[in-house]
Amino acid sequence: MHDIRAIRENPTDFDAALARRGLDPISPSILAIDTERRAKITAAEAALADRNAASKQVGAAKASGDEAEFERLRALVSDKKAEVAALEEEAKDMDAKLNDLLLTIPNLPYADVPDGADENDNVEIHKWGTPPTLDFDAVEHFEIKSVTRGMDFETAAKLSGSRFVILSGAIARVHRALAQFMLDTHTSENGLTEVNGPVMVRDSAMLGTGQLPKFSEDSYQTTNGWWLIPTSEVTLTNIVAGHTLDEDYLPRRYVAHSLCFRSEAGSAGRDTSGMLRQHQFEKVEMVSVVKPENSDAELDRMTNCAQDILERLGLAYRTVKLCTGDMGFGARRTNDIEVWLPGQNTYREISSCSTCGDFQSRRMNARFKRTGEKKPEFLHTLNGSGLAVGRCLIAVLENGQQADGSVNLPDVLHGYMGGKTKINADGSLG
RNA sequence: GGAGACGUGGCCGAGUGGUCGAAGGCGCUCCCCUGCUAAGGGAGUAGGCGGCUUAUACCCGUCUCGAGGGUUCGAAUCCCUUCGUCUCCGCCA
Question: pLDDT above 70 covers what percent of chain A?
Fold first, then answer.
């Protein structure tokens, strides 16, 4: 949600920033609505002021017992009623019109975000580790001999259709271990507060973080109107919706492990094999709520938290700063972390860390008040995966694969695996 | 699922049709007094929107007592809808 006053003051910069996202100038139509809106408000309020003044005199006349005057004023106020109602209606319509339009406009990229059309224009800003050198041809995760039995797409399709999977045995265990490892690391080492919250939310929550009104097709909705969250960013960020926080309550840093649901409309044909892109998946999500002056540093901190998980797992990755054309709706700047997948012989996204500035907090009306200051200010919100659990499973399996079809597990997971260190070629733990 | 109660400012809590954006208390800010492990006195203290403006400073207008709608000349106060909270019963992981 954009500040209409900022647009009013500098429409040229606003359009220029949106142009970097490939959008046509929109400030003229916004300002036209805004101008009319303000004219309507002024007119409606003037009429209201008249009515209120007369109404006040009605009370005085009644109190003094002047019945004739009372009746006269009463009629006057009554006459004003229709006029006021009509003007208020118009003002409200224009306000809604402006609001509806503003809700569909994406966030403005920060100046340092590189221009570009798609992922090919993203800029690498960090690289860690070396892809494993294998003396055999690496295969994709679902082709690894020890994995096939515990990763069943056919049976899942029978139950639910495509883009679902049933994990079992050692694979399910590694998947669970990864989620626990991530949560433990973030809470014990990185200072995040663990949260376990709803995966079904109202419209207002989805509006707050920006999934609605534009992207309703991307998510699922229950018959009674709840949305299945596409990410627990929705749950975590909306914790502060509608609140005015004390300055010393900040920063808030949350982490949650949750199911996520995505329709993947528009992804037909992409990543159809394996469990890279599912309708239902698990993710450990981080959300930070901070003061404006701290959000840049917070994005670095959050990105480091996500990278830290991969480093502890010993997985090679690179971090890219997304270009304007590849950034999500609500982001001002986004760092994607891409993990090396030997089976695909490339880096694939496993985390996306974004700062939204005050874009979401304006939608949610989430503010804070500085000590001693009168005016509340909008918070800054950030979100990032830390990490996508399913994709991390893929990475662990592909990077740990051996010539005989077994998989060596990262050291940090051994404690979560009852001391087991590998998945044997037959699928058992060893 | 059934029955009932309730939703007021940062917090607690008065207020059942007009003088209420709203008593009182707590908290917080400033000032005074006092002087040592404490207290006393005074003042101030909601937000949104529109206008004015260099201004997120004043000032003016307007809206907001969970939200939306209605009755009325006029609503925190009456009615309806809705969301939420609590209590009892039922059911249940």
Answer: 98
